[in-house]
Amino acid sequence: MTPAARTIALVEDQEAVRTMISRHLLRCGYRLHAFGSAAELLARAAEFEPRPDLLLTDVVIPGMNGVELARAVAQLWPGTRVLFISGYAVDVAISAMTSITDEMLISKPF
Q: Using CA atoms, how far apart are residues 36 and 2, in angstroms rounded to an integer?
């Protein structure tokens, strides 16, 4: 599938980082829904058509961590893949969220 056929839901609480990631993904041709918190994404989840192919979320976000958000998204959109991003050291992020594997985490800056 080409990027234009893929939709990404991005959750990143730092506006500058969210803007940078959004610009890059849009330039690559992805359809994108970008949010500053898990609550924002969940409040608008019913509006997504088509549903996102990928949830790209920071591990540490206000109100609900990225792993909790991934679990909620799995209920809403079964089969949606998840990729975590974190500004913390990879080992710290993984030990804090034991369900995250090395293959599921990208370290900031990237």
A: 26
Q: Of 78, 107, 63, 30, which is closest to residue 10 (Cα–Cα)?
A: 30
Strand spans (E) along the chain: 7-11, 31-35, 54-58, 81-86, 105-107
pTM of the predicted structure, to 2 decimals: 0.84
- pLDDT more than 90, % of the chain: 50
Look up residue 91 and give its amino acid.
D
User: Does residue 42 carry a pLDDT above 90?
Assistant: yes
What is the distance between the alpha carbons of residues 54 and 80, in angstroms, rounded to a whole number?
5
DSSP 84-99: EEESS-HHHHHHHSTT
Q: How far is CA 27 from the centre of its chain?
A: 18
Percentage of the chain surpassing pLDDT 70? 75
| Torsion-angle region of 69 (φ positive above 0: left; ψ -120 to 50: alpha; else: beta) | alpha
